[in-house]
Amino acid sequence: RTTMSTVIGALSNPKRTYDKVVNDLTVLKSIWLKPLAPADADHASRLDHFYRDQAHAYDGFRSNFLWGRRPMLAACAARLEGKSNLVWVDMGGGTGENVAMMAEFIDLSAFSAIYVVDLTPSLVEVARKKVKAKGWTNVFVEEGDATSWHLPLHYSDGTETKADLVTFSYSLSMMPPFHAAVDNAVENILDEKRGLLGVTDFFVSGRFDLPQRQHSYLRRVLWQAVFDQDGIALGPERRAYLDHKLNRVMEHNSDGTIPYVPGFMRAPYYVWLGCHPRSSQLMRRARSGIDLSGVEEKFHRPALFPPTFLYSISWEDPRADDPAFMVGEGDVVLTLTGGGCNAMDMTLSGAARVVCVDMNPAQGYLLELKLAALRNLSFDDAWKLLGEGKHENIEKLYLCKLAPFMSQGAKRFWGSRLHMLDGNNKSIGTGLYLMGSMGWLVYFSLLLQWWIWPARYFVRKLVSAPTLEDQRKLWNQLTPNPNSILGIFHQLTWWVLRYVLLNHYMLWLLNGVPKAQSDLIKKHDGRSIIEYAQTTFNGAALNTHIRTQNYFYLLCMIGKFTKECCPRFLKPAEFEKLKADENRMLDSIEVVTGKFKDALLAGVYTRVILMDHMDWMDASYHHDLASTLRDHVSPGGRVIWRSSSIEPPYSKVMEQYGFEVRRVSYHDKPDACIDAVNMYASFWVGVRK
After folding, report:
1. Which one of 39, 96, 168, 326 has the fewest CB atoms closer than 10 angstroms to its CB?
2. What is the dihedral of CA 495, 501, 504, 507, to 10 degrees?
3. Distance (Å, rounded) from C-alpha 116 to C-alpha 82?
4. Percentage helix, strand, coil, to 5, in the chain?
5. What would the DSSP string read from start to end of 484-499?
6. By three-state DSSP, how is residue 143 classified?
7. How many CA atoms lie within 13 A of 89 on its CB side?
């Protein structure tokens, strides 16, 4: 689609296309074919020799491959939001294009002064013309050396002005004395208490580097050799010095295309933000449990897992949990991440710390998205994204408000899936809750309604039933005379469920039910999957009001929540409570990718949620986990779990290891309902003796 629009645009304005090609060829000639500057020339002369002939076409050509500029500026702007009277110094600022780009993310009037500093006369000339044409009265272009340039202004009391922001945008790699440039920025220009330094540039990793930076031997040699022709140094030493000199606030490593170079040859670049070690304000751990300053591992999805998350919401009803789990002030909770919704519920109940762990990194990425939205968006924007599953301005929202506060893995995951969250995309298969394995099930439900009018009519009536009694009457109509046309359709529907949707493979792909769990139902309890499904749906439909109470099945039927029926954290009052006191409650939620037992071993907890994952494991794991729980759950602490079995064998194991175990509820009749989900046959609590 993008290629076709490019072709149409080129044909519709041939003169503009011709001018662009001429400018591009001018730049390419300067880059690849122009003779090098004399060996005895100084650095300023070499730069001007390189840029002089291409300065007029600099911005147009480089907008197509300097991919790190916008995310770097957006991440800086996100951390400066709400401040005023700021001072920004753009070192190696070239033509001043960064200033124009920054205007997309923050009102330039928030800056009392912006300094574009560059050593190249030809680029400085272009920058001065741009400032005059744009009418920027607070932007000053200065020809100077990044290693020695100082801020010229002083406050009225005679103290030297310091900068709130210093940036190096694709310039540090072209500064041979980079140590001196960084030292000057940090020691003489940047405010040590509130200053932020942002860098974006091309790079290659060291032979042994941080996991998210690491490149193969071939990639390291190739790109270093290519850029070395133009005197651009891509080695790891510049970023290593930044890490040494400053505290890292955020980092992102990626790659992007270069004009007229085959698309599979993508040049690596990075975005790096840091602050002075004395800056407690910027280093405050206010990133929704995501430590963006540390070393981030590269996580891979477990074997047999789809390349996405399984659950888009938590499939455990927190309202049923509360009486047995009893989360209160000061509790430290360990839970499987799942859809992440219930983590917000627990912190709203007063938990001091909620650790969410999952082996599937995509579940953590989903929770990161939800936390970033809660932290940085208004209620209306958060509702569109997390309530309705789409936002019409998702690309800008993501770049400015969400991505700057997410891990590198999460950014890679969501950056390639933004089209699914685009509110301008009216396709039936798009939306947050139509993603992941569970999303396929929701998509099938919507598709069925689209194709079969009686199904669409029935679902609409069901989700709009005024009362539970009206809903029950509608649901009971699904059991018609078996010899009628409706009865035949009813039997056909259950046949499709049994043989198409409820076989072993589809149970795993659509519902996240592994074979070990389905065996508990069929072999341990002696129930058929179809009987299990009937109890699940009958119990929920006959005992919970879908329109006002059961947001789980409402989501499955319409693909989104309503403001009347949604998780607790999407209610306006609770939303504001989570954001109060500078997001203090959200700070208590930690996102961990790894094994549940490893997270358990890392601390002592007062509350633990096992969900249903014990169903997935064998007897040796049950004993091992129960033993570890005994050692890492404080006396009086509570552990809850759900099971597809009415009497799972591991409940007895928990008793052997010092827990007083009680079955809270279970499927004791065909229309039993243990909670709004009703997807599990039993619900248990164990109290540590």
Report:
1. 39
2. -140
3. 23
4. 50, 15, 35
5. SHHHHHHHHHHHHIII
6. strand
7. 30
CA gap 23, 35 in Å, rounded: 19
- The first and second tokens of residue 476, run together, are 């009971």
Separation between Cα atoms, residue 97 and residue 59, nearest integer Å: 7
Contact status, residue 658 vs residue 686, Cβ threshold 8 Å: no
pLDDT at position 159 over 70: no
Among all chains, which residue has been given the structure tokens 């003489």? 188
Residues 342-358: tens digit of each pLDDT: 999 999 999 999 999 99
pTM of the model: 0.89
Q: How confident is the model at residue 173 (pLDDT cuts 50, 70, 90)?
A: very high
Using DSSP's 3-state secondary structure scheme, residue 532 falls into helix
What are the structure tokens assigned to 157, written together?
């009391």
Check residue 255 and report its DSSP letter: E
Q: What is the dihedral of CA 364, 369, 373, 376, to 10 degrees?
A: 90
In the chain, the N- to C-terminal Cα span, in Å, equals 63
Listed in sequence order, the DSSP H helices in 187-340 are 217-228, 237-245, 280-283, 318-325
For residue range 536-559, list pLDDT tens digits in order: 999 999 999 999 999 999 999 999
Residues with Cβ within 8 Å of residue 526, at least 6 apart in sequence: none
The Cα 654–Cα 309 span in angstroms is 29
Instruction: Give the model confidence (pLDDT) of 594-613 as tens digits.
Output: 999 999 999 999 999 999 88
